[in-house]
């Protein structure tokens, strides 16, 4: 059993406290931390958390309880200082994405985790779904041969779906597309080489920054990915992971994942189409711990066994997803100029 302290009990952190952590049986909560006393009072009043387990600082929590893991569920700008503090205090860390604001900060945290002999994991929860797991295995087994072209569409209309972060910088690329970029790396089993991206903000949009974007990504093995994402789409709503068509030498792999809309959850979907044939649906195996529960269960297993499971999103691995986000942002700022991922990784 892994003993954990949660840091950050705001809107998203409270969701972790209520909906995620209680459903992972290998984690025992020993502390909850938030600098805002109203946040700690809320988990006490609404979730029945013992006041003796609530603290206003991580230092106080570590001094009072014995813990193995810090679950960092704070706003992005707080990730770097809090993760650094947790690692320095000897804790393993699970942190929400993006795990740092810059590549330099991310590299520092990865190096610190190695120096301390601790596990640093980024909660890339979209990896823990049945469709992308199955697709990664199909691609790895060369079901239809090499992947030539991948087409991905993400469509949501944020104003009518309860979106609230209108002033967030790069609301598409940094907050949403990072999930899709990370899934590209996972299912292809490959790393991005360079990217070209354009973003824009349509008339009458409530966003302060660009909610729509189009990107072309080239991967090391030669696969080209065509990506289109919009928070202001009037078209059919896609699942959160988007709609994917993967064109291979001998057929297509068509899939979607995290089909949640207006509070209703639908199944992941996967179909295979041999060249000149019809698409045939494929039954998918259930995932024991899905989504955020999957990330928490994965780091708990890694801490207990010393061996990371397949497709584990360590801080070191996630550097490449973070670099891809930063490259697309740079490209968009330069009018779609091609940006080399290696240059972004080396710039820190």
UniProtKB/TrEMBL annotation:
InterPro entries referenced in this protein's UniProt entry, alphabetically: Gfo/Idh/MocA-like_OxRdtase_N, Gfo/Idh/MocA_oxidoreduct, GFO_IDH_MocA-like_dom, NAD(P)-bd_dom_sf
Source species, domain of life: Bacteria
GO molecular function terms listed in the Swiss-Prot or TrEMBL record: nucleotide binding; oxidoreductase activity
Keyword Oxidoreductase: yes
Coiled-coil ranges per UniProt: none
Signal peptide annotation: none
Residues covered by the GFO/IDH/MocA-like oxidoreductase domain: 134-249
Entry keywords, A to Z: Oxidoreductase
A Pfam family annotated for this UniProt entry: GFO_IDH_MocA_C3
Keyword Oxidoreductase among record annotations: yes
Residue stretches making up the Gfo/Idh/MocA-like oxidoreductase N-terminal domain: 7-123
Family: Belongs to the Gfo/Idh/MocA family.
Protein name (record): Gfo/Idh/MocA family oxidoreductase
Organism for this UniProt entry: Devosia litorisediminis
């Amino acid at each position: 059993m892994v003993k954990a302290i949660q840091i950050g009990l705001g809107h998203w952190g409270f969701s972790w406290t209520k909906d995620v952590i209680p459903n992972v049986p290998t984690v025992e909560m020993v502390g909850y931390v938030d600098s805002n006393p109203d946040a700690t009072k809320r988990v006490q009043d609404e979730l029945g958390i013992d006041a003796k387990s609530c603290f206003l600082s991580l230092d106080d929590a570590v001094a009072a309880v014995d813990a193995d893991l810090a679950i960092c569920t704070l706003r992005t700008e707080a990730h770097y200082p809090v993760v650094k503090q947790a690692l320095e205090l000897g804790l393993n860390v699970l942190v929400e994405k993006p795990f740092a604001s810059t590549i330099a900060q991310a590299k520092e945290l990865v190096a610190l985790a190695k120096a301390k002999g601790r596990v640093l994991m980024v909660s890339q929860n979209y990896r823990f779904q049945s469709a992308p797991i199955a697709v990664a295995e199909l691609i790895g087994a060369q079901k239809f041969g090499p992947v030539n072209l991948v087409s991905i569409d993400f469509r949501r209309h944020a104003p009518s779906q309860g979106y609230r972060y209108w002033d967030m910088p790069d609301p598409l690329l940094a907050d949403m597309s990072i999930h899709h970029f990370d899934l590209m790396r996972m299912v292809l089993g490959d790393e991005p080489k360079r990217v070209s991206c354009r973003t824009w903000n349509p008339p009458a949009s409530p966003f302060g920054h660009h909610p729509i974007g189009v990107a072309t990504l080239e991967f090391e093995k030669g696969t080209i990915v065509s990506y289109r994402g919009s928070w202001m789409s009037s078209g059919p709503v896609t699942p959160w992971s988007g709609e994917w068509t993967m064109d291979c030498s001998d057929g297509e792999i068509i899939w979607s994942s995290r089909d949640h809309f207006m509070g209703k959850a639908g199944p992941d979907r996967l179909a295979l189409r041999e060249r000149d044939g019809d698409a045939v649906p494929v039954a998918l195996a259930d995932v024991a711990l899905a989504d955020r529960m999957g990330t928490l269960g994965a780091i708990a297993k890694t801490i207990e066994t010393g061996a990371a499971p397949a497709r584990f999103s360590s801080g070191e691995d996630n550097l490449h997803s973070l670099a891809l986000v930063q490259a697309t942002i740079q490209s968009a700022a330069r009018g779609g100029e091609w940006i080399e991922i290696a240059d972004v990784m080396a710039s820190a």
